[in-house]
Amino acid sequence: MGLSRARPRTGATRSDDPYLPAHGNGGYRVEHYELDVDYKPAANRLTGRAVLTAVADAPLSRFSLDLAGFRVPKVLVDGRPARFTRSSSTRGGHKLHVTPARPVEGRFDVEVRYTGNPAPIPSRWGDVGWDELTDGALVASQPVGAPSWFPCNDHPSDKASYRITVTTAAAYTVAATGVLTARRRSAGTRTWVFDRREPTSTYLVSVQIGRYDEVVLGTDPVPQVAHVPARLRRTAARDLGRHQEIMAALRGFFGPYPFADYQLVVTDDELEDPIEAQGMSIFGANHLDGRRTHERLVVHELAHQWFGNSLTIADWSHIWLNEGFATYAEWLWSEASGGRAAAAHARDWHARLAARPADLVLADPGPARMFDERVYKRGALALHALRVRIGDDRFFALLTAWTAGHRHSTVSTPQFVELAGRHAATDLSAFFDAWLHRRPLPPLGAAGR
Predict the structure, then answer these.
(1) By residue range, what is the domain housing residue 405?
(2) Residue 33 vs residues 134, 166, 426: alpha-carbon distances, Å
(3) Best label site of 5, 14, 33, 196, fewest CB within 10 Å?
(4) pLDDT-derived band of residue 1, with 50, 70 and 90 as boundaries?
(5) What's the rounded Cα separation, in Å, for the pair 358 and 347?
(6) Per-residue pLDDT tens for 7-23?
């Protein structure tokens, strides 16, 4: 009798993310992205070649990638031409459906050639993704913008390594996710090559293109540089002048910095909010004023390198683990740098939130409220209340254990609750139920000290 073999499956075109099911795809995971991008700023024209090394969970006769816009002239799977179709949905999904010449099994490569005028993706949170500046371009991908410039499996839990090669006009500086490993110049253009070995989510992969000067912010434990317009160089030196101290303070609170470098970009345009990326933060010209007015935002974005980037949420329902921790880092820096104590910030924000409707569940705010200010501030309040409840020694031991135990992996709220319980040596179930799963804001009580 001959051996029977399982029939190849069709990879799912939806993820299991309850918030953004149209982004991400089932049936495989990506190990590495090789992105080669040629960008002409004057025409906003991008020509790209992406090679994805992926692993199929089971034999696949068909699979999908996330990609919005662009003309796709060619797709290869393991070097062979593959059939492909495009689709989009009213719920925000933009898919490239690929049928390989033969089913894929185990590790396989997908090469996609694409060209067009990149544009941000409309979403309920505004337009996100690749966007033109007055002179240059930026990428702001959280949470659904990555497919605006490269084909991907756009889900936060699918973390991969990257090599990003960007060719653009020689007058421009390029900053991208990863350590700069090569730079070449030819007639009128310059090519920049960046490597990011640490596992990285698609929404944290970024490219910034502009006419920038470089300002060194620090060297310990990794190079810290800012790319700023020449007209803002002196202001940046003032406003970002304590970056080395901030880095040292956050390392003391959270443990070793998780990446090989840190870049900070200040665009010549104004931005509503700073942008988070892996090993990088992006600010607008309006975030510099020579008075360090927005230094807390510098702290917030640096803290995301631990919370959000190294420790990445398993799905978007756990977003308080990103934003609550980064907000609490602001309060910790204020306290450490001789400003207001974390307890004072906690009292103020507790009073503000108490005056607002009690209609948000922190551990599951819903997609419409992922970026609600209350997710940020109530998350920070929950951490401060926990700090007071278990004491500083146990609290900061918990934070360093949290970042060390899940370095470069994905995390969820139940994992943090379980680890906190072990560090507290007491039952915290009622505490976390009140702060994370109930709508009413718990009394601050002793946490207001």
Answers:
(1) 311-448
(2) 29, 14, 44
(3) 5
(4) very low
(5) 17
(6) 676 665 666 788 998 89
